[in-house]
Amino acid sequence: YPQGMVDFFKNSCPAGYTWQRSLLFEDGAVCTASADITVSVEENCFYHESKFHGVVNFPADGPVMKKMTTNWEPCCEKIIPVPRQGILKGDVAMYLLLKDGGRYRCQFDSVYKAKTDSKKMPEWHFIQHKLTREDRSDAKN
């Protein structure tokens, strides 16, 4: 975060924060995911435990099931503070790039919550993302 802007995520540490996310794909497929992030000052590291849930309605002939996706396109997430609830809401349209040059739209809706009361909430802002997928030969699926 730039100097002078409240960094909700750093301010939530070392106790950390959680997030919940719904992923709604253009063809009706749905997934949910969650994460629990904590910081160990003693070990000088952070821990990120994530879970991927509820993969439903992916068409058998769609790009995910046919393994036609190659990577994620860079994007920009809109972050909206909700001070009364002590959360940030994230809203972003993500696109998976396809082998044929097309794109597959996925709407990410996220809720970020500090594990302790947040000292300060940031103003609404944007976060630029670039997710890079790495295919691993040791992966099971």
TrEMBL record:
It comes from the Eukaryota. GO terms for biological process: bioluminescence. Keywords: Chromophore, Luminescence, Photoprotein. Belongs to the GFP family. This is Red fluorescent protein-like Da2_5.
